[in-house]
């Protein structure tokens, strides 16, 4: 590369961010000219100090604003900038800019009420900064598909987002999932959801999970017990989804209790995505019938049973993953790379 490579990490000095930054700094070589803007509390090796130009930034608002101003005045059109601390440059730069986002609090609608006031204020400022200054970025980089999805929802633009998971040493990483019996397929599995159609019963999210499975070529059977007269609109939506995406869903209408008890013996598992319950009788009944249970990781569930699979009831992806794991479909592991490969992948796009 003809230009300089700037690594801007003025707010990284502890935790996972420090571990990743340290791994990245250990890959620097003499083939490129590196300029590092680092928190003064971030240690560096002697080799790194001899390889790169290092500018130290104190952990104060004035120092960090000064570092942003220096960056805007120094970066040229041939340079590459990797902002490693979640935030875009405060000012528009002439070079190509990558931002590595690893703080979920900045892109997810997670309450910060339990944090100290100063941390809440900092997160508020950083969320605002990310939202308002993402136009100063050529490309965002995240570590997981979930983070990509969250970031896409936050910036709401056509900005390119790449998933480049890396750790200091990826050797030994695997995803341990017990496979089902050989020869079985998703169509061999049937799930039963005993519930009326009120919003907290979460049917719409369950439908999205089944569509997600269909998008992956998986079509497990789902039986529902919705009263078609009381919940006609929901039943129409189910019919539409079933026809549109070839979903294997059957509504048994409003079964009698005896019919419900009998039907437990005809399916492979109970799936129960309700977001809250005062009790949850189907959980008890399914266990009494010897059925495996897929249910949210929520207190009301754990009050009664220990499910075979749990999921986030607010995420159709989480529900579909629980179904996949239950039926024995392998979930592909992340394509982890080391810091050397990460840096090479970033720079490959700009050479």
Automatic annotation (TrEMBL):
Lineage top rank: taxon: Bacteria
Lineage of the species this protein comes from: Bacteria, Pseudomonadati, Pseudomonadota, Gammaproteobacteria, Methylococcales
InterPro entries membership: Glyco_trans_1
Gene3D superfamilies hit by this protein: Glycogen Phosphorylase B
Source species: Methylomonas denitrificans
Domain Glycosyl transferase family stretches: 182-327
Molecular function GO labels: glycosyltransferase activity
Pfam families membership: Glycos_transf_1
Keywords: Transferase
Protein known as: Glycosyltransferase
Keyword field contains RNA-binding: no
């Amino acid at each position: 590369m003809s230009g300089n490579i700037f690594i801007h990490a003025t707010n990284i000095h502890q935790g996972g961010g420090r571990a990743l930054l340290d791994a990245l700094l250990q890959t620097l070589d003499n083939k490129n000219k590196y300029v590092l803007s680092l928190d003064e509390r971030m240690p560096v090796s002697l080799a790194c100090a001899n390889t790169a130009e290092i500018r130290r930034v104190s952990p104060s608002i004035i120092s960090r604003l000064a570092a942003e101003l220096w960056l805007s005045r120094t970066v040229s059109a041939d340079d590459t900038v990797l902002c490693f601390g979640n935030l875009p440059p405060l000012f528009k730069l002439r070079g190509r800019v990558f931002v590595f986002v690893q703080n979920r609090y900045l892109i997810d609608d997670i309450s910060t009420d339990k944090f100290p006031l100063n941390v809440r204020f900092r997160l508020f400022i950083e969320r605002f900064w990310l939202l308002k200054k993402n136009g100063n970025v050529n490309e965002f980089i995240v570590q997981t598909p979930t983070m990509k999805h969250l970031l896409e929802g936050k910036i709401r633009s056509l900005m390119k987002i790449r998933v480049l998971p890396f750790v200091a040493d990826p050797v030994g990483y695997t995803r341990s999932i017990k496979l089902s019996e050989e020869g079985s397929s998703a169509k061999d599995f049937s799930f039963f959801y005993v519930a009326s159609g009120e919003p907290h019963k979460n049917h719409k999210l369950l439908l999205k999970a089944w569509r997600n499975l269909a998008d992956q070529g998986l079509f497990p059977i789902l039986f529902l017990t919705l009263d078609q007269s009381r919940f006609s609109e929901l039943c129409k939506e189910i019919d539409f989804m079933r026809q549109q995406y070839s979903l294997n869903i059957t509504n048994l209408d409003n079964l009698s209790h005896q019919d419900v008890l009998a039907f437990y013996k005809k399916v492979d598992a109970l799936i129960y995505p309700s977001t809250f319950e005062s009790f949850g009788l189907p959980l008890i009944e399914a266990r009494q019938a010897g059925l495996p249970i897929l249910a949210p990781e929520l207190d009301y569930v754990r009050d009664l049973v220990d499910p075979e699979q749990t999921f986030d009831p607010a995420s159709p992806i989480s529900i579909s993953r629980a179904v996949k794991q239950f039926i024995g479909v392998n979930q592909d592991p992340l394509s982890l790379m080391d810091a050397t490969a990460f840096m090479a992948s970033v720079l490959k796009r700009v050479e």
